[in-house]
Prior knowledge:
Shape: globular
Strand content: over 45%
Amino acid sequence: QVQLVESGGGLVQAGGSLRLSCAASGRTFSSYAMGWFRQAPGKEREFVGAITWSLYNTYYADSVKGRFTISRDNAKNTVYLQMNSLKPEDTAVYYCAAGRPRSSVSYYSSRTYDYWGQGTQVTVSS
């Protein structure tokens, strides 16, 4: 069982930065891949990025590639999402998730992830 709690959301102007954190409980955190997803009002939840559990390989949506960076600290049971050059279209509730993907493609699917946080709001003003 893994419990996830996101923090770090807020209101920022376009071009600014935020760092989201996701703190996990449970001794098996290090064995899970971690993903970030977001959901804007009236839209479906979409993949933002993910990081593998061992080699720390990362995957990103094209819309955030080059602007967002995922990292994890297994000693602290925490995964981070550094968001730079934020745009108004990045406004959404951001969720972290834990799962055990079986292929590279599955990292991108929300169905891969078994545990979810409650979400943190990110609002980017123009």
